[in-house]
Write a structure and sequence with these properties.
Structural class: mainly beta
Mean pLDDT: 86
Radius of gyration: 24 Å
Number of strands: 24
Strand content: over 45%
Shape: elongated
Number of helices: 1
Length: 360
């Protein structure tokens, strides 16, 4: 017989309107050596040329639940992201504190590689020390942050806000420069995302605004003059077990970019990954936790946290007794999602639900 565990009863009193959203943790992000993902992306800009992509109607609204259909979009290029452990190399030698790195490149140009150097810190998140890129903008490909930043905290919930400030020095044609990137983040929307070749998933949308500025020491006197300031708005869609599953980046502007825009400098969508579920190798399903309900006219939506080791779930209800014979299955078997929509809502004042976790 399958091991089964269930959550203590959750009662729906009709008229009660509760909403719950997913939580993204470090376990959901890419931070293990050997993990990778591949994404479709629009044609990157060339020297003195722009190739913006239309994203009108793609961004969605704050709040939720939203549904983002990202099955259609540009496929000009494929970007690959690999996660590698610390090694003896030119890149890691410039970032001795980093234990992990994200290596990315266009598959059409596999030698054009860039790196983000970081450490996954328990209860803190992704601690970034800088980045490495061969770019005409920098004399030195290594860009070490004066102080590390935590760009994605260890736990992110709907409504969370945070800000990062990255400062780094480099030079261009021998002229010293100081770069500042101040980025504000807000988990401002939630719902479902459909990704090409992968399917539909629950997600959180992160709405961020980046303020980028450059100051130059023209005379070599350590006096820096501000010469450029640009803003970009960046949306990230975070998915449990798949990290940053999609990104849309506005075109740069001299003023803060509005939350709705029609043209983007980048539209990226994940379509392949080898990231394994964190529960691989488990022997028994843990009990479901975090069961919440949303009551809307003519339907009830149940959500719960992913249970460790669970392969399937069973959604049941009763309107009377609590004995084993009183429960009726609502979900098909096997059922692998962590949400369920009940459209069979009658005028009963109380309807009792429970969700059972199973492992085959």
């Amino acid at each position: 017989m399958k091991p089964i565990k269930y959550l203590p009863l959750a009662c729906l009193f009709l008229g009660l309107n509760l909403e719950a959203q997913i939580t993204i943790t470090s376990d959901d992000m890419y931070n293990q050596p050997g993990e990778y993902y591949r994404s479709y992306i629009n044609q990157p800009p060339a020297l003195l040329q722009r190739f913006p992509v239309t994203v009108a109607g793609k961004l969605g609204e704050s709040g939720g639940p939203n549904f983002w259909d990202f099955t259609d979009g540009p496929t000009d290029e494929v970007f690959r992201y690999d996660y590698v452990a610390k090694a003896t190399s030119i890149v890691f030698n410039d970032f001795p504190e980093a234990s992990l790195a994200e290596r990315s490149y266009r598959e059409s140009k596999p030698n054009d590689v860039s790196w983000i150097m970081f450490d996954d810190v328990e209860n803190l998140g992704r601690k970034v020390f800088g980045f490495w890129i061969i770019n005409a903008q920098f004399d030195d490909p290594s860009n070490r942050f004066t102080l590390p930043i935590v760009d994605f905290p260890a736990e992110i919930n709907y409504g969370d806000t945070w800000t990062t400030t990255a400062e780094y020095q480099n030079s261009l044609l021998g002229i010293p420069a100081i770069y500042n990137e101040v980025q504000s983040f807000e988990a401002d929307a939630y719902g479902f995302i459909e990704l090409p070749e992968l399917g539909v998933f629950e997600c959180l949308r992160i709405n961020s605004l980046k303020d980028f500025s450059v100051a130059i020491d023209f005379n070599g006197t350590a006096t820096f003059t501000n010469v450029e300031r640009q803003f970009t708005r960046i949306y990230y869609w975070l998915v449990p077990g798949k990290g940053i599953a999609a990104q849309i980046v506005s075109e740069p502007s001299g003023n803060p970019v509005a939350e709705q825009f029609n043209l983007a400098s980048m539209f990226q969508r994940t379509f392949e990954t080898n990231k394994e579920e964190k529960n691989a190798g488990c022997l028994e399903a843990a009990a479901v936790t975090g069961l919440d309900i949303i009551h809307q006219p003519n339907l009830v939506r149940l959500k719960w946290n992913e249970a460790d080791c669970a392969q399937n779930y069973r959604v049941q209800f009763t309107t009377s007794g609590l004995g084993a014979e009183d429960w009726t299955d609502l979900s098909p078997t096997p059922y692998t999602d962590t949400f369920f929509i009940d459209t069979n809502v009658n005028k009963a004042r109380v309807k009792i639900y429970r969700v059972l976790s199973e492992r085959n």
